Amino acid sequence: MAIVILFPTLAEIPGKIRCQRMKSQNLYPMHGKFPCYVAYTGTGKNMAKSIEEIMSKIQPSLFLSIGYAGGLSNTLQAGDIVLCRQFLSEEKKRLEATSHVKNAIASCLLQNGMPFQEGSSFTSSSVICNRAEKEMLFSQGAMVVEMENYWAAEKAILHKIPFLGIRIVLDSIDFSLPDLSNTIREDGQISFWNTLVHILQHPGDLFSMRKIYSLTKRIEPVLLKCCQSFSSINNKEIL
C-alpha cells in the first residue's frame, strides 16, 4: 500500500524530484519513511484515466491530486496552499474529500510549518481566464479552479480509494490568465512547437507567459515541501 501523488503535467513536478525521462502514468518512488510515488497524468479527465492505469500496477492507499490552481478569493495569492474539502463540477455535482485523510494531511502540513486555507475546488473543462469568470465561480462556493479534481475524485471513489486534492495558487483573482492549453500535450508535457506557434499567433501573451514562468519558480519550493511532507505520512494514519 502506498500514497500516489498525481500531478497534471510534468512541469508541475518540482525539479528535485523530476527527470526528463519521466513518462506519463509511470510511477516514480520518492525517498521517505513510507512508500510514496509520484506520477503525472495529463490534464483534465486524463487524470481519471491514469488512475485506472496506475491501479493495474499497484493498490494505492491514497491518491493525492496536487498542482496549480486559479485563486477565486481575494484572500488568495500566488503560492498559497488550498486544501480542497469538496470538488465541484460543471454539471452542478459535488463530491466530498475523504474526511479522515483531509484531517491527516492538514495535520501534516501544519507540523511542517505550511499554513493553508481550506475550501472547495471547481473543476473546469476550459481555462478560466479573467476576474469576472473567477468571481462567478466564487459566488458558487468555490475557492480555487482547476481541471482535474472532480474527475479524479469520482474515479478514486468508484474504486473505494481515499482521495484528496491540494492546490497551490498560481494566478490570483486579478491576474488575467492567457489560455495556453494548446501548448500542453495530452500526456502532460509542454510542446515546444505548439508553444512557439502560440507566441507567433498571440505575441501579446508573451508578457503573461513570462510572468507565469516566474510564478511557477516561486511556487516550486512549496510543491516540493508538500511532496516531501506527504512521503513521511504513515499509511496507518490514512487507512
Brief summary:
The protein is of the alpha/beta class and 239 residues long. It has six helices and nine strands.
Give me the Rg, rounded: 17 Å
Question: Which stretches are poorly predicted, pLDDT < 50 over at least 5 residues?
Answer: none
Mean pLDDT: 89
When the domains are counted, the total is 1
Assigned CATH class: Alpha Beta
Overall geometric form: globular
The count of strands amounts to 9
Largest sheet: 5 strands, mixed, barrel
Descriptive key words:
globular, 23% strand, Rossmann fold, five-stranded mixed beta barrel, alpha/beta, 6 helices, 239 residues
Description:
Helix 1 (46-55) runs parallel beside helix 4 (149-158). This protein has helices spanning 46-55, 99-111, 131-139, 149-158, 192-201, 206-230, and strands at residues 3-7, 28-29, 36-40, 62-71, 81-88, 94-96, 117-123, 142-146, 163-171. It contains six helices and nine strands; from the N terminus they run E-E-E-H-E-E-E-H-E-H-E-H-E-H-H. The model has no long low-confidence stretch (mean pLDDT 89). The longest helix is centred in the C-terminal third of the chain and has 25 residues, at 206-230. With 239 residues, the chain is an alpha/beta fold. It has one domain (3-237): Rossmann fold, CATH 3.40.50.1580. Strand 7 (117-123), helix 3 and strand 8 form a beta-alpha-beta unit. Strands 4-8-7-5-9 form a five-stranded mixed β-barrel, surrounded by four helices.
